[in-house]
TrEMBL record:
Keywords, sorted A to Z: Cell outer membrane, Membrane, Receptor, Signal, TonB box, Transmembrane, Transmembrane beta strand, Transport
One GO BP annotation of this record: siderophore transmembrane transport
Name listed for the protein in its UniProt record: TonB-dependent receptor-like beta-barrel domain-containing protein
Magnesium listed as a keyword: no
Pfam families, per database record: TonB_dep_Rec_b-barrel
Coiled coil feature spans: none
Entry's Gene Ontology molecular function annotations: siderophore uptake transmembrane transporter activity
One Gene Ontology CC term in the entry: cell outer membrane
Subcellular locations according to the entry: Cell outer membrane
Membrane topology, record value: Multi-pass membrane protein
Record-annotated TonB-dependent receptor-like beta-barrel domain positions: 11-303
Keyword Lipid biosynthesis among UniProt keywords: no
Domain of life assignment: Bacteria
Length: 375
């Protein structure tokens, strides 16, 4: 989608479909240390009317139109999805896990990577759009420490993707009944390693997680057929979550997240036509949004869970759970008011004639108070 494309209030044709699935699995204990879970899932999807269904040539031009009535199916997809998970216990505190899974997705996210228009649309499978398919393998090591107070894990994964969709350069993806003609299809791969350290017991609990990953695509007609980052390609992703219980009725929490900015397409030049200046785009997703990070804080005050009374006959204290319970939560979103970029627009400076990048941020620090109860 070109930056500055008009926003329309025109209705577009709705899409309809029916999805179904069935799954069987079995668990097999090879030994007291080695466990295997395997199964297979059958999934299907039927695209149906009412609506006008288009067929396109290689250039994305409509070559045929067929009208289908309400409830009339015009395309079916059937897929088998095998699953396998294995767990081997090394000793009392550690284990190794491995898995394989195939998945099919019948609803597709089309991300517009132009920096000034961070819009996403969802498209169902159709006669033109095949289901996206992935095959993923994982291998991980898991270990507990200090009598299960701490848990550590490291897990690697690799995913092969097929039938991914992207759009032609200059495509209008919003409010377009013929958007399928602007789509291109290709393959993808995603791989990475995830590390997690969690404290599970005590007044102070929480976890630290780090993911190093890549998500890449290869689509004929985009970037000269070379591999390029997906919009959601986040190389580094860090999360720190802490919780502390001061007492049964007072608890505090803090969470900090950090990740590499999304891959986006920035203009690499500009040209003028009929007195109008247009941006020129070259490499798809060849740039990055600024790094994202923020800190969230919270404090929860719990109401009394029990009420006490004295037994008149025995003089003993009786504790009974209250039917009405409530709590207050005080929180601050983005506590240090980081101005994270929501979108970046490119505007021409009237004084210098130079094109400048202008960042738009939505929220700084946002405090909130929540009162909840149950009975």
């Amino acid at each position: 989608m070109e930056e500055g494309a008009p926003i329309s209030d025109e209705d577009v044709q709705e899409s309809y479909g029916l999805e179904g699935a069935a799954y069987i699995m079995d668990e097999f204990k090879v030994s007291s240390l080695f466990n295997v879970v395997y199964g297979i899932r059958y999934s299907n999807y039927g695209a149906m009317g009412p609506g006008d269904i288009y067929s396109y040539d290689a250039d994305g031009d409509v070559i045929d139109t067929t009208t289908y009535a309400s409830g009339e199916f015009y395309q079916w997809y059937h897929n088998l999805e095998p699953r396998l998970a294995m767990n081997y216990i090394l000793n009392d505190v550690s284990s190794v896990k491995a898995s394989y899974a195939r998945n099919n997705q019948y609803v597709h996210l089309l991300s517009n990577s132009t920096s000034g228009s961070p819009t996403d649309i969802w498209l169902p499978s159709s006669n033109n759009i095949k289901p996206q398919q992935s095959d993923q393998v994982t291998l991980g090591y898991f270990r507990n420490f200090k009598k299960n107070m701490f848990e550590f894990s490291v897990e690697g994964y690799y995913k092969w993707l097929d039938n991914l969709i992207d759009y032609r350069t200059g495509a209008q993806t919003n409010f377009n009944d013929f958007v399928e003609g602007d789509l291109l299809y290709g393959a993808g791969k995603a791989y990475g390693v995830e590390l997690l350290l969690r404290k599970k017991k005590g007044d102070f609990t929480g976890w630290v997680g780090y993911t190093l990953s890549r998500s890449l695509r290869q689509v004929d007609g985009v970037n000269d057929g070379n591999w390029y980052p997906a919009r959601q390609d986040r190389i580094h992703d860090i999360s720190v979550v802490t919780m502390y219980s001061f007492s049964e009725r007072v608890a505090a929490s803090a969470s900090w997240i950090y990740y590499t900015g999304d891959a986006v397409t920035f203009p690499s030049g500009k040209y003028e036509m009929n007195g109008v200046v247009y941006n020129y785009y070259s490499e798809r997703n060849g740039y990055r949004m600024p790094t994202y990070h923020r800190l969230d804080l919270g404090l929860t005050l719990y109401g009394k869970k029990f009420k006490t009374s004295i037994d008149p006959d025995t003089g003993e204290e009786i504790k009974k759970e209250k039917k009405f319970q409530s709590n207050w939560n005080f929180s601050v979103y983005n506590a240090y008011a980081r101005e994270n970029a929501f979108q970046i627009n490119f505007e021409e400076n009237e004084d210098t004639g130079q094109t400048e990048a202008v960042q738009l941020s939505l929220f700084k620090a946002v405090p909130s108070i929540t009162y909840s109860f149950n009975f």
